[in-house]
Amino acid sequence: MTSTARPLAAQQVAGMAGQVALLVALSAGAGLGAVGWSAGIAYTAGLWILLAAAVRRARVAGLGPADLVTLARAVLVGGVTALVADGLRSGAAPVAYLVVIAAVALVLDAVDGQVARRSGTVSALGARFDMEVDSFLVLVLSIHVAAVVGPWVLAIGGMRYAFVAASWAAPWMRSALPARYSTKAVAAMQGIVLVVVAAEVLPLPLAVALVSTALALLIWSFGRDVARLWRDAHPS
After folding, report:
1. Which residue in 68, 97, 120, 134 has a CA-CA distance of 20 to 30 Å to 144?
2. Which residues contact 221 (CB under 8 A, 6 or more apart)?
3. pLDDT at res. 2
4. Residue scoring higher pLDDT (235 or 10)
């Protein structure tokens, strides 16, 4: 093992240990079953394969301070994934555990960016890692909330992945977009709305209205980005 590989390997071991510890805690407290364990382990394996490849492409020794905060969030997302998968089998996920873990992951989303700026470690790798963790959390939450308000909620979780799939067929969609506060606000709103609805504290009509508003804003945000990319690629 090379000297540049050791830091990442140690971080991977720590992350895997954290994931297993969380799954054990959910087994004891929330009755997490075999399906949840399988989903959690599969998620962890996929995460490490993709993250190791990204670190190699970035030619860095390992994850920076802000990336480690994102790694902690990724472990929490693994717990949410396990709970949602187990809930699909049993018909009822332990809402309290799911909401608390997802809420902590959303709070930490505001921390990793601050750590990156204050430590001077802002990087393309960190930004991509952060975005992928956010996107997967929204996808998993949308699967859970779909059982509450209807399958159309899956459009929220699948929107970014549909955008990526479309970019494979349309190379002009792969260009960089300018950073916009509104884009970040709309993206953050999705996770918050899904967690609130997942808590099942709202009347169904209000939950439907809230999720519908979030979806409408997400469609507007993606539509604006696609229009911008099209204009840049086809100036005539």
Report:
1. 68
2. 182, 183, 186, 187
3. 39
4. 10
Nearest alpha-carbon partner for 8 in 74, 73, 63? 63
Domain that holds residue 90: 5-233
Residue 217, φ and ψ in degrees, nearest 5: -65, -35
84-89 mean pLDDT: 92
Neighbours of 167 (CB within 10 A): 15
> Residue 177: which pLDDT band, with cuts at 50, 70 and 90?
confident
The pLDDT of residue 6 is 64
Tokens of 106: 């959303």
Q: Tokens 């959910």 correspond to what residue?
A: 26
- The Cα–Cα gap between 183 and 180 comes to 5
The domain tally of the chain equals 1
